Amino acid sequence: MPALVLLGAQWGDEGKGKATDLLGGSVDYVVRYQGGNNAGHTVVVGDQKYALHLLPSGILSPGCTPVIGNGVVVDPSVLFSELSGLNERGVDTSKLLISGNAHIITPYNVTVDKVTERFLGKRKIGTTGRGIGPTYADKINRVGIRVQDLYDESILTQKVEAALDVKNQMLTKFYNRRAIAVDQVVEELLGYADKLAPYVADTVLVLNQALDDDKVVLFEGGQGTLLDIDHGTYPFVTSSNPTAGGACTGAGVGPTRISRVIGILKAYTTRVGAGPFPTELFDEDGEALRRIGGERGVTTGRDRRCGWFDAVIARYATRVNGLTDFFLTKLDVLTGWEQIPVCVAYEIDGKRVEELPYSQSDFHHAKPVYEMLPGWSEDISKAKTFSDLPKNAQAYVKALEEMSGAPISAIGVGPGRDETIEINSFL
Ligand code: GDP
Ligand code: IMO
Ligand code: MG
Asked: Are 282 and 312 in contact (CB under 8 A)?
């Protein structure tokens, strides 16, 4: 059996945590392949609500082995506080595996993230301030610290020295901050080594052997397609590849292993942080979506920017990820609108454009072209099958499916595990 990828089809916060948790009971491994604790994945199980940042959402399914792949950046302090938080609530986390090749978010990476954003002022990205970008920058610059480096003090010291050489110049001379002491960083990092050791594994080997043994492996993306460093709205993106290809590099499995790529798609659109967002609403409809949808960031507590569904973006996500299915979430939030606008194309400099423009300048000017779809007023949160939905809700789903280019195989009608309509099985 196959490997599946589950990823965000918009700007993140589509409901990936809920969808992963839903499948977690039926899969053997859930793997995070990129990002770090910039993610905030909410999982609601019965009356219990969990907010996961770094750990794969599969950690809540007892039969499932959660894996942090080589492509993830790991802040050890966050890791241990998340683990102990779950342990206190009775969740067994002992099966967790962490790649020895994953990079460590060091305290200086967090500092650099914060000072850089402050310096950018009005031009800031609106990062989560968790050190994500600077850690990936160190990785690409070949001065990153990997999990395995914690087990060789001399190598670790050399690497921290190399990394801080330039950074301390920058921090003291340019940003007017205090230099960071090598010894202090090394001591802090070494302090995590023993606690981390039971989890560290050759996850590439483990996952490929699992696939050889017909186990089911689910790759859980953080962030979303439009936040991808290559395919997103650069520079207003995160510093990794949440898109499907990222699962291969970030976990060490070949593309031929992956049989299904599921895009999580919110029935409207949200975004956190800066950057273009054609269907963004600044009126009472935007406020209503934020209020009804509870659109507040899980990681930073920032209000999410809200807007109508954008089919141009959904089509783009289908294309760059090779999506085989969509999981449409939060349809229940749209209950009560008489008419629901859906963006079917853009108008850019007076011309109608059907596909996402590759030029960011054009995208910044894109004005949504809306089609109005009839709404519904019935409560849909108890719907179990597609035919339980009111006719107009069915038509809304069908219209989105047609515009977006892949079948909608599940629909979320509430935050809970069982508040889901399954149309086609994922497994
Ligand atoms: P993620 O980052 O993609 O995992 O998404 P977040 O957890 O940041 O945000 C999604 C929010 O929507 C969470 O509060 C979920 O509990 C909630 N949610 C997920 N699916 C549904 C749904 O179908 N309906 C409703 N009303 N809420 C949902
Ligand atoms: P989940 O997994 C929404 C956004 C930040 C910022 C940009 C860069 O919960 O969907 P970073 O700290 O990654 O360098 O910030 O990316 N961002 C997210 N937005 N959901 C997320 O994760 C995000 N992770 C990062 O707001 O605009
Ligand atoms: Mg989130």
From this structure: no
Residue 229 has a pLDDT of 98
**Atom of ligand 2 at shortest range from CA of 133:** 14
Mutate to test the pocket of ligand 1, among 20, 30, 42, 303 (most ligand atoms within 8 A of CB): 42
CATH code of 161's domain? 1.10.300.10
Residues 311 and 359 reside in one and the same domain: yes
Following DSSP, what letter does each residue of 130-159 receive, concatenated? Answer: SSHHHHHHHHHTT---BGGGGG-HHHHHHH
Which stretch of DSSP H or E encloses residue 362? helix 360-365
For the segment 136-187, what is each residue's pLDDT rounded down to a tens digit?
999 999 999 999 999 999 999 999 999 999 999 999 999 999 999 999 999 9
Q: State the distance from the centre of ligand 1 to the C-alpha of 186, rounded, in angstroms.
A: 38
Distance 405 CA to ligand 3 centre (A): 24
* 133 marked among binding-site residues: no
User: Does 255 reside within a domain?
Assistant: yes
Q: Closest by alpha carbon to 109, among 171, 153, 196, 183?
A: 171
Pocket test for ligand 2, best of 30, 52, 110, 127 (most atoms within 8 A of CB): 127
Atom of ligand 1 nearest to the CA of 294: 14
DSSP element (H, E) containing 164 = helix 153-169
**Are residues 360 and 232 part of one domain?**
yes
The range of the structural domain enclosing residue 178 comes to 103-196
Q: Would the annotation count 274 as a binding residue?
A: no
Domain membership flag for residue 427? no
Number of domains in the chain: 2
212 shares its domain with 186? no
User: In the annotation, is 364 catalytic?
Assistant: no
Look up the CATH number of the domain holding residue 344: 3.90.170.10
The residue written with tokens 């990062």 in the block is 127
**37 CA to centre of ligand 2 in angstroms:** 9
Residue pLDDT, tens place only, 64-111: 999 999 999 999 999 999 999 999 999 999 999 999 999 999 999 999
Choosing from 168, 196, 224, the residue where a domain stops is 196
**Boundary (domain end) residue, out of 181, 196, 211:** 196
pLDDT in tens, 367-382: 999 999 999 999 999 9
